[in-house]
């Protein structure tokens, strides 16, 4: 049998009748990690179960969260377009997703609801379909340790109290978890945010808490 050359990463997970003649612009500047993920067939990707998600959060290895290969491809295409249209991902987040007229907080961290917005993660990771991934955006800063890049003990306590108050009465204790990305992992640096993962939450509660938000992955073709 003739030896088949492996497909270039930019053709993997793309139907043959839609193959581009060359690598698309939005994939040309990718690092080795993203090239490797996008070059993996979706059929070989294993989504993380809830116990695996909680474990990675508990050991601060959120760098091991990855998107499904075809979803990462769509995400890179989307963000490439955003930068062209809005100048930066941050401009899009502030103007189209948050729609905050002012970025100045009214009060102390978590004191006023108007300083907080809960939205879906526009491009969630490759996790069990029953897991909902939310992003909590805040006008106020949440202090990080300068050496570790992780939340300070005081900041960690404030976030945890907020998460327990907001989600603890609507989900079982083991069915929600939060994390804050290391500085080096943040895709949006200028607007403070952290992440909450929920296992099999009530859809009605999700509509209430997100004000009927729809993630961009559901809107982008």
Distance between the termini: 39 Å
pLDDT < 50 stretches? none
Order of helices and strands: HHHHEEHEEH
Mean of residue pLDDT values: 92
Helix content: 25-40%
In percent terms, what proportion of residues is strand? 5-15%
Which sequence of strands runs across the widest sheet?
A: 1-2-4-3
Got a strand count? 4
Q: Which outline best applies?
A: globular
Radius of gyration, taken over Cα atoms and rounded to an integer in Å: 19 Å
Tally of separate helices: 6
> Sheet bearing the most strands, described?
4 strands, antiparallel
> Strand pairing plus helix content: what structural class?
alpha+beta
Strand-helix topology:
Layout: H1 32-38, H2 50-58, H3 69-86, H4 89-98, E1 116-120, E2 131-138, H5 153-167, E3 176-179, E4 192-199, H6 203-210
């Amino acid at each position: 049998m003739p030896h088949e050359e492996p497909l270039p990463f930019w053709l993997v997970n793309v139907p043959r009748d839609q193959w581009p003649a060359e690598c698309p612009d939005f994939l040309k500047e990718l690092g080795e990690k993203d090239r490797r993920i996008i070059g993996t067939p979706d059929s070989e990707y294993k989504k993380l179960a809830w116990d695996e998600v909680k474990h990675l959060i508990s050991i601060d290895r959120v760098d091991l969260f990855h998107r499904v290969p075809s979803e990462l491809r769509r995400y890179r295409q989307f963000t490439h377009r955003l930068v062209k249209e809005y100048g930066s991902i941050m401009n899009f987040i502030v103007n189209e997703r948050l729609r905050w007229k002012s970025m100045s907080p009214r009060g102390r961290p978590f004191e006023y609801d108007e300083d907080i917005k809960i939205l879906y993660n526009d491009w969630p990771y490759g996790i069990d379909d029953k897991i909902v991934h939310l992003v909590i955006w805040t006008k106020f800063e949440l202090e990080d340790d300068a050496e570790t890049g992780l939340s300070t003990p005081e900041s960690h306590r404030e976030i945890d109290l907020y998460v327990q108050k907001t989600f603890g009465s609507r989900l079982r204790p083991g069915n929600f978890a939060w994390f804050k990305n290391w500085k080096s992992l943040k895709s949006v640096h200028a607007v403070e945010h952290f992440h909450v993962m929920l296992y099999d939450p009530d859809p009605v509660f999700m509509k209430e808490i997100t004000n009927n938000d729809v993630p961009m992955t559901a809107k982008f073709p």
